[in-house]
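so the lab meeting is tmrw and i was supposed to have these ready like two days ago... anyway. pasting both below. for each one the top line is the aa sequence and the line under it is the structure tokens. i havent really looked at them closely yet so no promises
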Amino acid sequence: MSMIDAADIEAIERATLAALAPRDMEERGGWLLPFEPGTIGRAKSAVPLRHDRPDPAVVPMIEQRYAAHALAPRFRLAEEASLAPLHSALRLRGYRAEQPTRVEIASAAATASPGGDAAVTLSEAADEAWASVYLGPGFDPVDGACRIRAFRRARNAVFAQLRTAGNTVAVGVAAFGFGWATVHGMRTALAYRRRGLARRVLAALARAALERGFDRIVLQVEEANAAALALYAGVGFRPAWRYRYWLAAD
């Protein structure tokens, strides 16, 4: 896969928010402003559609738009030298950067399961069995409920679930648009981790992407999640860029 360009960055950001389907969103001055209460950072953080045209003057406007929606302003900004003036402007306004996260891309052809996987089923809707993994032991039920609602709102999506002994134990979702298959919501029940189940779910989603004519996959993973980083690297994902969330200091 060739290196991404400015058009790919914009397409990935649009595809990411289309998959999360926030309750409201505005596009202003080259930025996407999603407005979604809840726990999903990407669904409630302003993000620029380009990395090469920083304009610190937009910060007050973005703050005002979030205030109008009764939400705290948040920014999701790539760790690129070209955005340094924007980073500096936010620091001067009392913001702090946290939660380093990677945007990673891969070829669906390299990631897909060649012959399918009978244990992984695909559906255009997230049924209760799929949702149950997010509400299982060891997970935050409030965060899980937020994610279930967001993923169920996504258009052009496919939901994968892997069953063993009649129980759904690993899930994921892919949405298709803007030239990319965006993978979200990869989760495995705690008791079934380290068995390669997430890899099988991801392979099934990649196969679904190919069947729909998409050979480029993108996902986002926190740098603190070493197991997920190793999984994705093992099936051909590589970093496209790194970002942090910028929040106003308490």
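ok protien two:
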Amino acid sequence: MLKPFVWLASLSPLAWLIYGAFTGGLGTNPVERITHVTGLTALILLFTGLAFTPMRRATGAHWLIGYRRLVGLFAFFYACLHLLIYLLLDHGFSIPAMAEDVYKRPFITMGALAWLCMLPLALTSNQKAIRRLGKNWTRLHRLVYVAATAGAIHFYWLVKLDKLVPTRYIVVLALLFALRIHTWLAKKREKNTPSRSNGMNAAPASGAQMRAE
């Protein structure tokens, strides 16, 4: 139901860039502006996808999970645009120039790590891959936390002077990690705590009942 709005919201930064390119609204350094917007949009969408699970648990809005994959794919889309602009407009696909840039500027390496972590997630974001990988799909998609961390560090290292904005992103990421750890600990406690029906005076469950549980 809300999918059209998700599409519109996710594509609005790209529409703004296209409009700015035709109207001269990208400032004196349009390449830098496009690179910044695409990278920041990818990071915001990546964080948004991570926030869906704690939001669902806090509000009971289970329908949010249905949009997590779409938001994640849009994050990868903007990350690809961000990388393509860097490769094409900054270095003209010159391998030596890119290698020197990676060596001299570690934040480029961190950005590449974020993209490489997002690549297998995008390639396996379909029902066929979920069925084929089984439980390994969940393990693989934990790479999203590595991608988000690398992306936040990439942004922090990129900014030279006023680091207030990238620091805010790191704080948000730390909060998302804290919520994830809290949820994991709560599940672990529930698993290790026997229910009331399994108390000392309860009758042993039958084999059929155990299988049903």
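from a quick look at the 2nd one: Residues 199-213 have pLDDT under 50 and may be disordered. The two ends are 34 Å apart (CA to CA). will dig more after coffe
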